[in-house]
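Exercise: predict the fold of this chain.
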Amino acid sequence: LFQFAKNHRGLYQNSIPSARSFYSSSGDEDELLWAAVWLYIATGHQEYKAYIAGANNLGGVRQSLSWDDKFVGAQALVAKLILQGKLPNNGRHAEMRSNVESFLCNVVQHGDGRSGRLTPGGMLYLQPWSNLQDVTTAMFVLVTHADHLAAARASLQCGGVRLPPAQLVSFARSQVDYILGKNPMKMSYMVGVGKRYPLQPHHRGASLPSIRNNPGKISCGKGAQYFHRSAPNLNVIDGAIVGGPDNNDHYDDSRGNYQQGEPSTYTVAPIVGVLARLLHN
């Protein structure tokens, strides 16, 4: 599969044009690099190591890890291999480690700010559209790299500031606490958690009646009446995380507010690992 992807480069939305308006890919270099690192870890085959060393684009210092930009993931894995003594800390490997550590310095507010600033209430803020997706992925990379540093008895060096692994985990905990209700709105942004959480997430399955209560078909036109209701959604999507508040910690719990209220799997998936790490701690 890797060889096929490497030999037949292109963007998937060129084959599936209907995806272009929603989740179009900006390029395949990050996926190929990430795949090569994972395959090297799994097999130890030198061809994958050679691909990493010869890749045209190592990503540089990224703003975030996302469904469309996976360079940080590849960089974090290479940094792990360096800390474990499985790759030399020089050349392109060292460049990738430096890139991910610069990204993490930015995340914990000891960098140039390209990975967001803290809101007055303490949330890492990067963008108005589903900001929490960037928070949860950043925290996942932060806690995993913290553990790799701890195992190597190392710290994160951000310019002249040395940050021990425990401090990185503490920052991640502050972001998780914010998401779960320790914020100016006193609202949990994970649905179903706490006494106050979003009641009108922008989610079709949550806002429409269940098949048990309404076994008939609901056309697109008839669905509009449920979308425009001012009442809470008919179904509670427990565990979903919405997009989150704005840069002033304000959240508008309105079904039509898709920028803040739309939940996604790419927001909730990373926090599962972070929660497991914090529980272990």
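Check your answer against the key: The CA atoms of residues 14 and 137 lie 28 Å apart.
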